[in-house]
TrEMBL record:
Main localization of the protein described in the UniProt heading: membrane
Organism annotation: Rostratula benghalensis
Gene: Hhla2
PANTHER family given in the database record: BUTYROPHILIN SUBFAMILY 2 MEMBER A2-LIKE-RELATED, T-LYMPHOCYTE ACTIVATION ANTIGEN
Protein name, entry field: HHLA2 protein
Domain Ig-like span(s) in chain numbering: 1-88, 95-177, 180-282
UniProt-listed PROSITE patterns: IG_LIKE
Gene3D superfamilies, alphabetized: Immunoglobulins
Gene Ontology BP terms: cell surface receptor signaling pathway; cellular response to lipopolysaccharide; immune response; negative regulation of T cell proliferation; positive regulation of T cell proliferation; T cell costimulation
Keyword Signal (UniProt): yes
Membrane topology label: Single-pass type I membrane protein
């Protein structure tokens, strides 16, 4: 029989191995020819343990008499991935179990929008991935080249930033982050300018796809850009939070409501809708 286990990089995981009750248990955990953990004469026998597993394996001794030879493997590395075999012999029976271990990395992304008097730049970040991610850009329906990039390493993990200068604000821009086991899509659209007058209230709409609203990890963050200074106004992640006076999020459509407008409210408003694999950033300029 074969089990499959997925563990997180640098965390602990348990490789299951159950056997029928018996006496004088002999337990061997192996990965290919590597001796991962041995147990007989009622104690661990680690003289021949492969150095890759030193101080990282643990059997639950109190559970062995009950038929549990599961192995705890600590501080997972990417080279731990693969097929493990558990052999248990007792006076009564012999049991063999295979466990396929997959090691996943807790990677994440960020989409950053910067504006100055002369240009707009979109920065697409992928953090702590393995292997190195591939980032591609699409403008409208056309593939385009990035304008700058920066890569960093932390041990075996990669972080990558890809920049794009935005020339045409009428188009939608997409950053695709490609990993072996998933793809993340980050999207930017710059909407028409809104105008209003001092003292009024206004609602700034946020574009989003309603079918992602119930996704686990769904969040909305509104920020305000003025004179190259950015400030967070409000957010929603199941409940809404306001960080500035006179602002609130409409929980029905995630638009931003601004009360008692002043000329200092003129600037760019950014609505960032995100889920674990998708983000959409909508930029609107308000003129008061």
């Amino acid at each position: 029989e074969q089990e499959t286990v997925t563990g997180l990089f640098s965390k602990d995981c348990i490789l299951p191995c159950l056997f029928p009750y018996g006496n004088d248990e002999v337990i061997y955990w192996k990965k290919g020819v590597k001796n991962v953990h041995s147990y007989y004469y009622q104690r661990d026998q680690l003289e021949r343990q492969d150095p890759d597993y030193r101080h990282r394996t643990h059997l639950f001794h109190e559970n062995i008499p009950g038929g549990n030879a599961s192995l705890k493997l600590s501080n997972l590395t990417l080279t731990d991935e693969g097929l493990y075999s558990c052999y248990v012999g007792t006076q009564q029976t012999k049991t063999e179990v295979e466990v396929m271990l997959h090691v996943r990395v807790s990677s994440y992304y960020a989409l950053e929008y910067q504006t100055t008097d002369t240009k707009r730049v979109l920065k697409c970040h992928a953090f702590h991935t393995y292997p190195a991610p591939r980032i591609s850009w699409v403008q409208g329906n056309t593939s385009i080249q990035e304008t700058d990039r920066e890569e960093a390493r932390d041990g075996v993990l990669y972080s990558l930033r890809s920049d794009l200068s935005i020339a045409n604000t009428a188009d939608t821009y997409y950053c695709h982050i490609h990993l072996p086991y998933e793809e993340w899509v980050l999207q930017l659209s710059i909407s028409d300018q809104l105008s209003n007058v001092e003292g009024n209230s206004t609602a700034i709409p946020c574009e989003y796809n309603s079918n992602i609203e119930n996704t686990e990890g769904f969040s909305v963050v509104w920020t305000f850009n003025r004179n190259a200074v950015s400030s967070v106004l409000a957010s929603f992640n199941g409940t809404s939070h306001s960080y500035q006076p006179r602002v609130q999020i409409n929980q029905n459509n995630f638009s931003l409501i601004l009360h008692d407008l002043t000329p200092n409210d003129s600037g760019e408003y950014l609505c960032n809708i995100s889920t674990p694999r998708y983000a959409k950033l909508t930029v609107r300029t308000l003129q008061v």
